[in-house]
Amino acid sequence: MFSIGDLSRRTGVKVPTIRYYEQMGLVAAPERSEGNQRRYGRQELERLAFIRHARDLGFAVEDIRSLIELSGHPEQPCGHADRIAGEQLISVREKIAQRQRLEAELERIASCCNGKTVGDCYVIRALSDHALCANEHG
Amino acid sequence: MFSIGDLSRRTGVKVPTIRYYEQMGLVAAPERSEGNQRRYGRQELERLAFIRHARDLGFAVEDIRSLIELSGHPEQPCGHADRIAGEQLISVREKIAQRQRLEAELERIASCCNGKTVGDCYVIRALSDHALCANEHG
DNA sequence: CTTGAAGCTCTAGTGACTAGAGCAATTACA
DNA sequence: TGTAATTGCTCTAGTCACTAGAGCTTCAAG
Fold first, then answer.
1. Cα gap B41→B6, rounded to integer Å
2. How far does the CA of residue B36 sit from the closest CA of chain A (Å)?
């Protein structure tokens, strides 16, 4: 039997976040001690680790809810789980591509400021005038 | 003189977002028509374009506030603007690196699901067991 | 038996918007 | 000039995934 603090240390999920997940229905409300404190077992620990892992991978809470739901029905075809993961992969790739465009733009902006005052600072000028951008972004 | 809708079309910033920026003090409250509608001039258009550009580049609203403040004092040294841009660059690079780790992990997870049911679905198993991860993430 | 850490509930705040209700003003066309 | 469609106004509340704080109670160690 773990306290909420134990669970937190073992999974790396912060205590208030565990309570928040309970409120959101991502984890079930656990047993309580005589003094009304939460007491968790191994099963809850595993579920929370699952959630933690999926959050680290960028899955939205709603996706995680679906994945948990699916994992409770191991006899069903796994196309749905595949689709959720595939969509997440696409979204991650899009974000990377987008951020790489920003990186290029920021590099250009931040590296060539050799003005001494704001008046001729490249950072400010580049932000004021989109025409100074080498390529499209946003 | 532009209406808020004109301004929105010209800058690509949505109408409620313009009003939100006004509320946050990022753009000044403009003149009003007799019927209490906002009327903007060229200066406001430029400022909003600046904000739009900076947001596209991922700058936080608070950073933009600083950059606007700086651009109003063109005689000051531009080290501060440089620093904001440099920090933004670092943060973008970190996010790219993080996302690339996730991409690798998700690729592995999403690509090798050849189970027919959730019971032996790699997606679910990989999320349940961190040990299946090729490398660290999160 | 006391002390200090950890737990409890509840409310409110974060960032950067977005949505909707319920009106008023403007504009285009007949 | 009439009217209908569009655009605008304010205000409140919702989004996502937490995070912070107040004010209290319980637990574990010494």
1. 11
2. 29
Residue with tokens 């679906």: A66
Kind and range of the H or E run holding B38: strand B38-39
**Residue position matching structure tokens 């939460």:** A38
List the alpha helices (DSSP H) in chain B. 4-11, 15-23, 42-56, 61-71, 79-111, 122-128
Query: Could you tell me which chain A residue has the CA closest to the CA of B104?
Result: A89
Contact (CB, 8 A) for B13 and B52: yes
Is B54's CB within 8 Å of A116's CB?
no
CB pairs < 8 Å spanning A and B: 172
Question: B44 to each of A93, A129, B47, how far by Cα in Å?
Answer: 36, 14, 5
| CA nearest to A54, candidates B128, B113, B36, B44 | B128
Reduced to 3 states, what is the DSSP secondary structure of residue A102?
helix
- Cβ within 8 Å, pair A82-B110: yes
ipTM: 0.66
pLDDT digits (tens, 9 = 90+) for A45-70: 989 998 888 888 778 888 888 888 77
Task: Judge if the beta carbon of A123 is closer than 7 A to nucleic acid strand C.
Answer: no
Report how far residue B112's alpha carbon sits from residue B135's, in angstroms, rounded to the nearest whole number: 16
The CA–C1' separation of A74 and C21, in angstroms, is 46
Residues found in chain B: 138
Range name among B12-16, B50-54, B97-101, B114-118 with the lowest pLDDT average: B114-118
State the smallest CA–CA distance between residue B123 and chain A in angstroms: 7
Determine what percent of chain A is predicted with pLDDT higher than 90. 29
- Give the integer Cα–Cα distance in Å for B92 and A98: 10
* Residue of A89, A103, A109 with shortest CB distance to B85: A109
